[in-house]
Write a structure and sequence with these properties.
Radius of gyration: 16 Å
Helix content: 40-55%
Strand content: 15-25%
Number of helices: 6
CATH superfamily: Glutaredoxin
Shape: globular
Number of domains: 1
Order of helices and strands: HEHEHEHEHEEH
Distance between the termini: 58 Å
Length: 157
């Protein structure tokens, strides 16, 4: 009984520090794609098993720090399976990711990809930027720090 109580206490203490939130397509759209405000949402689709995705994450983290005052917000959207939530959480913690991390639980990608971006083939990494509820940038493939910073500068002005 004491062991169960300690386990419950430990899990309750860990929840406030939760780094990954599982979301549906509708929740993703409401929080990062459709907000009609003057913030630039930099939405990066990735997975823990994607080497180029993991390689560019530090660039997005730096951009989030650099451009946060200019109303730019990085949102990482993991395409790992929802069953892998614990391993994504562990990855995010190990990499000390500070940006918002969502785990998309939307089912068949052949159905939802076109709802996000019709030009997207489904390859990752993929980055889409939204401002005022409208897409202002799309790129499939890796971005380097200088490219990312330059794009953000033009989109926040």
């Amino acid at each position: 009984m004491i062991r169960l109580g300690l386990l419950l206490l430990a899990s309750a203490l860990l929840l406030p520090g939760k780094k990954v939130n599982v979301v549906s397509l509708e929740q993703l759209q409401a929080t990062a794609i459709k907000p009609n405000n003057d913030s630039l949402y930099i939405v990066n689709f990735w997975a823990t098993w994607c080497k180029p995705c993991v390689g560019e994450m530090p660039y997005f983290e730096e951009a989030n720090t650099k451009f946060g005052a200019q109303k730019a917000k990085v949102v990482f959207v993991s395409l790992n399976s929802a069953k892998e939530e614990a391993s994504v959480e562990k990855f995010v913690t190990a990499k000390t990711i500070q940006s918002e991390v969502l785990l998309l639980n939307a089912g068949n990608p052949n159905i939802w990809i076109d709802k996000i971006e019709p030009e997207w083939t489904g390859s990752i990494p993929a980055t889409i930027m939204y401002k005022g509820g409208k897409k202002v940038f799309f790129h499939e493939g890796e971005l380097k720090q200088a490219e990312l910073d330059s794009i953000i500068k033009t989109k926040t002005n």
